[in-house]
């Protein structure tokens, strides 16, 4: 296994792990808030569940980038490509937008979801507004996903 391939694997791992941590935290704080509100107003469960789930998408995006790197490097087929060190660093760098933005945006989205859950507790008809506010944070995760995808498929000749 070449140093380049190891660097690509580390990048892919970070792209999956960091947004996964952020998503777990974001969903967890949303779940705490939703559980508190649901204990008082069980009829809001469906609306609150959507808000709690929103920060979980970054973990999915990070997983997607990791799989794409594994496809590009031949790790999924069992025939890994002998990457140069420069190519390995390029894959590593391609994973960083999703890794870093995924971690931070999932945590931020969790905090926005908590605020939207509290708003929904006071005004149940405002849950769609809360979903919109929480989903705005998602924009930056999607941009990071697109940058990482473009770098993985277009920016690195293999």
TrEMBL record:
All copies of the V-ATPase proteolipid subunit C-like domain together span 10-68, 92-150
Q: Which SUPFAM superfamilies match?
A: F1F0 ATP synthase subunit C
The organism's superkingdom is given as Bacteria
Task: Could you list this entry's UniProt keywords, alphabetically sorted.
Answer: Ion transport, Membrane, Transmembrane, Transmembrane helix, Transport
Q: Which InterPro entries match?
A: ATPase_proteolipid_c-like_dom, ATPase_proteolipid_csu, F/V-ATP_Csub_sf
Q: Where in the cell is it found?
A: Membrane
Q: Does the keyword Transmembrane belong to this entry?
A: yes
Range of residues in the leader sequence: none
One short Pfam name that applies is: ATP-synt_C
Q: Name one GO molecular function term.
A: proton-transporting ATPase activity, rotational mechanism
Question: Record's Gene Ontology CC terms?
Answer: proton-transporting V-type ATPase, V0 domain
Mode of membrane association: Multi-pass membrane protein
Q: What is its main location?
A: membrane
What sections of the protein cross the membrane?
90-110, 130-156
List the CDD domains.
ATP-synt_Vo_Ao_c_NTPK_rpt1, ATP-synt_Vo_Ao_c_NTPK_rpt2
Question: What family is this protein classified in?
Answer: Belongs to the V-ATPase proteolipid subunit family.
Matching NCBIfam families: PRK06558.1 (NF005124)
Q: What is this protein called?
A: V-type ATP synthase subunit K
**Species for this entry:** Candidatus Merdivicinus excrementipullorum
């Amino acid at each position: 296994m070449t140093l380049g391939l190891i660097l690509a694997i580390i990048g892919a791992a970070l792209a999956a792990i960091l947004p996964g941590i952020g998503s777990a935290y974001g969903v967890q704080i949303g779940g705490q808030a939703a559980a508190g509100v649901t204990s008082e107003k069980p009829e809001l469960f469906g609306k609150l569940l959507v808000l709690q789930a929103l920060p979980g998408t970054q973990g999915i995006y990070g997983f997607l980038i990791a799989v794409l790197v594994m496809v590009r490097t031949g790790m999924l087929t069992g025939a890994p490509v002998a990457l140069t060190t420069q190519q390995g660093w390029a894959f590593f760098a391609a994973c960083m937008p999703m890794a870093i933005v995924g971690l931070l945006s999932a945590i931020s989205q969790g905090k926005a979801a908590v605020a939207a859950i509290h708003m929904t507790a006071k005004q149940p008809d405002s849950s769609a507004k809360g979903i919109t506010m929480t989903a705005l944070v998602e924009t930056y995760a999607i941009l990071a996903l697109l940058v990482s995808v473009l770098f993985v498929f277009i920016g690195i000749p293999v």
